[in-house]
Amino acid sequence: MEFVYKKSLGQNFLKDENITSKIANLSEIDKDTLVIEIGPGAGSLSKKIIPLSGYTILYEIDTRLKETLNEALKQYDNYEIIFDDFLEQDITDIREKYNYQKIYVVANLPYYITTPIITKVMNEIYPDKIVIMIQEEVADRLSASYGSRDYGMISVLLGSRYDIKKLFKVSRKCFIPEPNVDSAVICLNKNNKLGNTPVDKFEILIKDAFQFKRKNLKNNLKKYDLEKINEILQKDNYSLNNRAEDIPVEVFIEIAKKI
Ligand code: SAM
To answer: Count of CB atoms within 10 A of residue 95's CB?
Structure first.
């Protein structure tokens, strides 16, 4: 029987093998790597990832794909599939439990939960590398640098823990069924910019700084010690009259450390 794609699960499967090979190769997976793939679908990307990896864990919510996936991956033995909602999984102990040198997340994500997935993996595993295909517009926002129109709260929150690069664009024509947006593959490489700055404190500062997009820092950060913040900003040639979108990640980190 023909597979009925569920739009509600973000089911747009990749049909172009050149793209799946390119994603797997650019991920630079090796036998010391534990890979996590979220949403393997019919296994087109999994087939390329699993043979490169030490071990791969796949999370797929749609149990109708059991037979297809088992068949597509039957020649490999270094993987397991968890048929469940990834967002409901306890993944906090994966690093200790599997004990690989590196953990990568590689996936063509279901677009309706892009941000919750990134947030979950970042907070619960902090993988060494994340290579994901997402909607192009979101890719531009995540990888934006300060001063650009797309630079926002999410760019700073991610940028404090990862160096983010847009790798390549993927036309909507490469999927079945064809979505109404183009996609892009981005690569996030762990950096340690945030160091031991408390994550909660940093996140609250960034949320406040970007709270009203049109307001400057003086207005958005009223409840903080403005004199101290101004001192830090001036050192880097910024001022309280700048908007959050003008300020590099490193300067925000410095502020979070000192307030
Ligand atoms: N990796 C396949 C490919 O590239 O052809 C499929 C990608 S498709 C964009 C997204 C996949 O994520 C679908 O197979 C869908 O069933 C699955 N999915 C959706 N929500 C999920 C969730 N909460 N947890 C795990 N998998 C999910």
So the answer is: 16
